[in-house]
Amino acid sequence: MAPAMTAARPATSSALSIAMTGSGGAGVMTAGSMLLEAAALAGCYGLMSRSSGPQIRGGEAAALLRLAAAPIESLGDRFDLLVSVDWLNLEHFAAELPLDRNSVIIGDPSQGEPPAAMLANGARRLALPMKELAKKIPGGRANMVALGYVASLIGLPEDATAEAVRRVLGAANDRVAASLASLAVGRQAAAEVESPVRLTPGTRSGRRWLLTGNEAAGYGALKGGVRFVAAYPITPATEMLEWMSPALVELGGVLVQAEDELASINMAIGASYGGTPSLTATSGPGLSLMTEALGLAVAAEVPIVVVDVMRCGPSTGIPTKSEQADLNVALYALHGDAPHVVVAPTSVADCLATTQWAVHLAEAMQVPAVVLSDQSLGQTRMVIDPPPVDDAIAGRMLAAVGDEAYRRYALTSSGVSPMAVPGMPDLMYTADGLEHSERGTPSSQARDHLAQLDKRRRKLDGVDAGARWAEIDGEGEIAVVTWGSCTGPAREAIARSRDDGLRVKLVSLRLLAPVQPHRLAAALDGVSRVLVVEQSHGGQFRRYLLAEHALEAEVRSLCHPGPLPLRPGEIHQELMRWSRQ
Amino acid sequence: MNAPISAALAAKDFKSDTKPVWCPGCGDYGVLTSLARALADLGLRPEATAIISGIGCSSRIPAYTTCYGFHGVHGRALPVATGLKVSRPDLTVIAAGGDGDGYSIGGNHFLHACRRNVDLTYIVMDNHVYGMTKGQASPTTEPDWDNALMPGGSGLRPFQPLVIALASGANFVARAFSGDIIGTAAIIAQAIQAPGFSFVELLSPCVTFRPEQRAWKELVRPSPVPPTDDPARAARRIMTDDGFNIGVLYAGRRKPYQPEIGRARKPLADLARGFEL
Amino acid sequence: MTPEPAIASRADLLACAHAMEVEAAERYEEFAAQMRQHGNLEIAALFGKLAAIERKHAEALAADLKRGGHALGARPALAVPGQEGLETASGDALHYLMTPMHALAIALANEQRAFEFFADLAERPLPAELRRLASEFAAEERAHVALVREWLARLPKAAEDWDYDPDEPTMPD
What we know:
heterotrimer; B: alpha/beta; Rossmann fold; eight-stranded mixed sheet; 8 helices; C: 173 residues; mainly alpha; Ferritin; 61% helix; 0% strand; elongated
């Protein structure tokens, strides 16, 4: 239940939130993409996420944008502008499109009245007869008229908008001319109106990137050395796999489409056994299927990376919406005692570095690594500064050819034992999911089981996560402890709290397993109140914190499930309320 | 198939020191010997050969050889073998297991491995029973075979692996019998040499749970017709045989699936160009 | 598929016989290992003895070959369907509770097959010297057959319930 919105105040003074909605082939997603790209070309930052009905085509759709002069990481609390090509099923999005009396709804009079729910908060109205205007142009389209109108209203330069249209459609596309003409008509209409909102102009030029979290994760994996991917399509991970497929070919790698997730995880294990860093990507239902094979990778000590782009669960859940409720599966769903790595990127940009890091950890420790991304990171397209160049790739510790008494699972002090790879003479061994001796021979002996369990845990206990293990920002007697896509809203909430005179520390965990209780304790030194923020109904992250760490502070939880994100405003409100108690 | 080199190894060089836990009398002993013979006859090297298995008595075979082995989870040998072969085409990759592992839990992977036609050899040691778990019906068990889990029998029509393999696109389909060590060695060698997905359904009696299968050695016969490359003809033959015709039944000419790998055409940083504004 | 033996000389015949003995020895040794692994030490020892006998025969033939300045063959280039080598049984007659009677029945069948092979060879259109040698080998194998028969006769017959094991099979995986 979202708290009642107080009188609106822009989340960040220069950030503007714009929603474009429509159905039946209106093309609002395309228009939204163009708006984002136009803002980026104009030197701004921004992001766009999407919402749609269940239809594959023609259903109601909403492009949700937030644009700003400075980098932003998440959607805000409300929308400044709602542009609707039509009102069909718009109440479907009502909860996702909070409006207030400072918001402006731009609609086509020929489509009738907006749903009552959208008007309840007193938003102002502007009329734009987009369909009629579009008809005047051969091949003209209402969404392009709306785009021209909005771009002009918020102050985006004409050339940036036109260039964005060309880039999104592809310059050779024969719709470009009609689209540009429609754009112009929209701009003209906007000139006659006094604009209620303006985007503070951006000053950034120079190389910036526009990409989704899924693409960033794919690229990060390649940077980490992945050259084999097994793929089974699932919403919302499919685009990561589709981005990687041609990219792998360019690098001499390969993607194989599997018949199901059981096949994809086992294929990746097979390729990794053969010496190739390997990966698969999936969502909650797929990760559940993969748990047996992940245990096999733990037991046989085969490195592998699985990216879980989380969506609402349980079971089929809400495939197109984000949630942070696969934490339990990632941490605990392997049968037996099966230590492994779980990491979580904190933003769209961080998907790159954290996936690269996951490959590094998996290869160095010969263990599976699960990357918990989510739909809101994976499918949000964002303008980011290019990530710092980090070419560190850990090598896998390989066995030395010629080792006469080679034992694949030798009890080394670090727990990591050199790995022979097929092709190496004299080092042949059979990798096994059965418990085994140092040589790899199946064993049911107590001493072997204990020795190997100790070895597999020791490997991870020795991990040096460095500064990456968490993002820690600021100081305060109250701290927000969070993870993943809640980091952006938390950071924004903390900035607002600081404006209100309250100092709050941010701790966002990237390394969820192996747990780092001492480091968290150190990070929370001096903190007496911890607000745990997460997008889960059952509070999985809070339970994990309490179970695995000794938290001395008083702990409160701010959590709710998807499909709605945790908003900066609700986090800020909770912080202020608690600070007054 | 990896390139043979001059220092030829004998069959015994492909058998490890690990003593099999198979019951004396088990057909899998013969299979192990035939496999070792085939690998030696082809001049292959243990370090360039990988044997991938699932779970079950037959799946214990990798550790009984001196090759690289992977003893994975139940039913999943084929995907592991596929991932390995596609990323390491230089290796000879053989997947092995039993009828429960391969046709029940592994059934889906079986279909798609035949379709995918990666250059693999898949040997299923079929004894019409789940031996490791003490005697339940498997997909190839007769419908009226009484057992503890399904008294009176499963009542189900037995799975027809050869027909399914053929229909799904396997490039080489053969049936062998574990008691015919030299014949089976020859079939396995042919299967390894045949490009694409080679499937060998290998009748291998279970002395403990199906002692009546000792009679198989009287029932098997060399296939009365030579192998064909016509899938329709092969299908007709296989659908009308009694399950005891031994030999190569189909040898097709599908091109194996093997993407080109290993040669980078672009530096990694170029792939980020698409993100740049 | 019965490849015909390529025997054209004395050396070929000696090599063939040698290879058969070696393979028989190796097979008995494998059987002995299986029996040891499954707790039947009496039969393991028996197969071990049979293996040793075959090894002795092999050594004699090897010496013969060496004297003649010939190389040893890698393995016999001949077989009958269902048999790996003529003196080598497939393992399907084994049982973890098998008795000496069963083991010797296997040995008997091996020797019988070997006898038949050489006897048959002796009737082939081969040079006289080779046929003579084949006959000699046949005679030796027949003597082995008699020996095994005698051995068998001295053994007590296996009990009715020789394969009774009160314990259920286990499920290791």
